[in-house]
Amino acid sequence: MASDETPSTRTRAALRELALGASVEILPGQLPSPEVLASHLPRATSVYIPYPPKGRWPDTVAACEQALAAGMKPVPHLPARSVRSAGELDDWLASVVETGVDAVMLMAGDRATPAGPYPDTPALLNSGLLAEHGLRRLGVTSYPEGHPLIARADLDEALRRKREYARATGSELWIVTQFVFSPSPVLAWLARMRDAGCTVPVRIGMPGPVALRALIGYAVRSGVVASARALKRKPGIARLAGRWSPTPIALALARHLADREDTASLDIHLFTFGGFADAAEWLSNLRKPDELAVCPPETS
After folding, report:
1. Contact, 172 vs 136, CB < 8 A?
2. Which burial class, exposed, middle or buried, applies to 245 when counting CB atoms under 10 A from its CB (0-12, 13-18, 19+)?
3. 232-258 pLDDT, tens per residue?
4. Which one of 34, 96, 106, 256 has the fewest CB atoms closer than 10 angstroms to its CB?
5. Quick check: 57 and 32 in contact, CB under 8 A?
6. At 125, phi and psi to the nearest 5?
7. CB of 53 within 8 A of CB of 79?
8. pLDDT tens digits for range 151-204
9. Are 205 and 222 in contact (CB under 8 A)?
10. DSSP for the chain?
11. What is the rounded distance in angstroms from the CA atom of residue 97 to the CA atom of residue 100?
C-alpha cells in the first residue's frame, strides 16, 4: 500500500477486499434460485453447503447444481461421521465431482457415534478417495475459542496431520473457523497460529445479520458459549432492535490487515442462518466502504 495512505483509508480498502473475497454458507433447503443467487452475489462467490443432522446427500448434490447454475462455486460439507462405508464415500464424491464441484469442506460432523469407518477428517484423508476423485481443494475447520469436547493439543495435532496430507498430495488447504461474536479471540488465535508457523489461508466465520435471540441459540448449540454470554452482557444490546451485526468484527479484521502488510491470506465467511438476503445486502454495502463509517476499536 502507498505510504501516504491514512489508517482510515487503508482500513476502508481492506474492508472492501474482505467483502469481495467473502464466502457464504446456506443450507440446501434455504438456497435461493439461481436467478436470486446471481442477483445478490458476485459471480464465482464460494457458497458453502452444510450437511444438516438429518441431511440427504442427493440434496447436497442438487444444491451444488443450483449454485453452479448461478455462476457460483459450491463447496459442499463432507461430515466424516455421517458416511456409512467406503463405498458410500466413493459414491458421494463421484456425484459431486460429476456436477463440476472441485472443492469440499471436511469436518467430523455432529454425530456422537460415527455411522461408519470415518470418525474424523484425517480418516477421510487417509481413505485416499479424495485424491482418487481429483479433489485437492480442501477446507478444514478450526475453533478460535476452543472445542467443547476436544482439547487444544488434539486440535493442533489434527491440523498438523491435515497440513502434512496437503503437502504430500499437492492439495490446496484452507481453514474456515467456527463463528465468533467478538474479534478478540480471533486475533489472539491468529497470532498463535502464525507464531507457530502456520500460514494456511484462513476464513473467519461470523454470523450474518440475524435475529439476536436465534443467534444466541445457535451459539449455545455450537459450543460458542463464552461469546454468547459476552454478547448478552454487551451494554445497550436491548437497543439493537434484537438484531446482530457482523460489522464490528469485519472492521477489526480490516484494521488487522491494514496494519500488517505481511499478513497471510485472510477472508471472511458468513453463516447466513436463514437470512441470506440480509447477509447479501450487508456484503454489498461493505463493498462500498465510502458509505460505511469506520468505527473506533472495541474497548471491551
Report:
1. yes
2. middle
3. 555 444 444 578 889 999 999 999 998
4. 34
5. no
6. -65, -45
7. no
8. 888 888 999 999 999 999 999 999 999 888 889 989 999 999 988 889 999 999
9. no
10. --TT--HHHHHHHHHHHHHHT-EEE--GGGPPPHHHHHHHS-TT-EEEE---TT--HHHHHHHHHHHHHTT-EEEEEEEGGG---HHHHHHHHHHHHHHT---EEEE--S-SS-SSS--SHHHHHHTSHHHHTT--EEEEEE-TT--SSS-HHHHHHHHHHHHHHHHHHT-EEEEEEPP-S-HHHHHHHHHHHHHTT----EEEEEE-SEEHHHHHHHHHHHT-HHHHHHHHHSTTGGGGTTEE--HHHHHHHHHHHHH-TTPPPEEEEEE-TT-HHHHHHHHHHHTSGGGS--PPPP--
11. 5
Cell numbers describing residue 157 = 495435532
Distance CA 268, CA 251 (A): 11
What does the block give as the cell for 234?
454487551
What phi-psi label fits residue 273: left (phi over 0), alpha (psi between -120 and 50 degrees) or beta? left
CB 142 within 8 A of CB 177: yes
> Dihedral of CA 26/64/201/148: which sign?
positive
Pairing of strands 137-142, 104-107: parallel
pTM: 0.89
Beta bridge partners of 243: 211
Phi, psi of 17 (to 5 degrees): -65, -40
Contact (CB, 8 A) for 130 and 121: no
